[in-house]
Design goal:
about 280 residues; Helicase, Ruva Protein, domain 3
Length: about 280
């Protein structure tokens, strides 16, 4: 998906917030923003929004020598999400369709995006969001593809939603071979191997790095191991907007599971901002 101009203000704001999160030193904050503005001004050199976003956040890491500025936020998100596991499991168990419920719970975890939403009341938000219906849900396509010993690759997004993903993975792993992919390095609040281990996803799935440090799985940066998983898995489920931006034009079938949080993504998916989508791209 091409990089649209309406991405730029959001990416610049994220850079400023990361600067504040990383240091109280005003001089360093100013240096970060000077570099971030230069990156934004040169936006045409980047093919995808996740690439541009990474370049802005590289300025934060460079000037503060903090390679994981969102670590405390990620840990807090995971801690709060874990408190809701019983509620999530109850929602799935009491629903008419457990698979659809688990997929919806995983999508609902996508609201735990501290790079976009601040001061989020997670429990209240969960209660509201779980019961919102998908605007589009291609679950019958998924059911038709699922066979005995099917291999499923799930490409992770934010750290907090990894707790919700684990519950879906736990269900799928009873009948299928599941692999979960994480970012190769810390970027914003996205999930890395560290958070995968904290959440315990490896108890139910093989885990692999995408090889990519941007907030989206960029094909040109796939590690060999991830590339093999990506193209050879029977089913690929991609979580979140960043992965959608990076993978929407890739030549293979992918299920995109996300909440549309901005007009650009909503338009591309033919939905409204705030809608939930589980969409198969063939």
């Amino acid at each position: 998906m091409e990089l649209f101009l309406d991405c730029l203000p959001c990416i610049l704001r994220q850079g400023l917030e990361a600067a504040y999160e990383s240091t109280d030193n005003t001089e360093l904050q100013e240096k970060i923003m000077d570099d971030a503005v230069k990156v934004i001004a040169d936006y045409r050199k980047y093919d995808y929004a996740p690439e541009l976003c990474r370049a802005v956040h590289s300025a934060v890491k460079h000037h503060t020598n903090n390679q994981d500025p969102y670590r405390k936020i990620k840990d807090s998100d995971i801690k709060e999400a874990k408190k809701l596991e019983d509620d999530i499991r109850s929602f799935i168990k009491n629903g008419e369709d457990n698979l659809k419920g688990a997929i919806k719970a995983s999508a609902t975890g996508n609201v735990m995006d501290t790079a976009i939403f601040k001061d989020l009341d997670i429990k209240k938000c969960l209660e509201e969001e779980l019961h919102k219906k998908f605007k589009r849900c291609d679950i019958e396509d998924l059911r038709s593809e699922l066979k005995k010993d099917s291999s499923i690759l799930i490409i992770g997004d934010n750290s907090g939603e990894g707790v919700f993903d684990k519950i879906l993975i736990e269900m799928l792993s009873k009948d299928y071979r599941v692999t979960f992919a994480y970012r190769s390095e810390p970027i914003i609040n996205d999930i890395t191997k560290r958070e995968v281990n904290i959440i315990g996803i490896g108890d139910y799935a093989e885990v692999v790095s995408t090889g990519c440090s941007a907030p989206g799985a960029l094909v040109k940066e796939f590690s060999n191991e991830f590339k093999e998983n990506f193209y050879n898995s029977d089913i690929v489920i991609s979580k979140g907007q960043g992965n959608f931006e990076a993978l929407s034009e890739v030549d293979r079938s992918i299920y995109f599971l996300l909440k549309a949080k901005c007009p650009k993504i909503a338009k591309a998916l033919d939905v409204e901002v705030g809608d939930y989508v589980f969409r198969l791209k063939r």
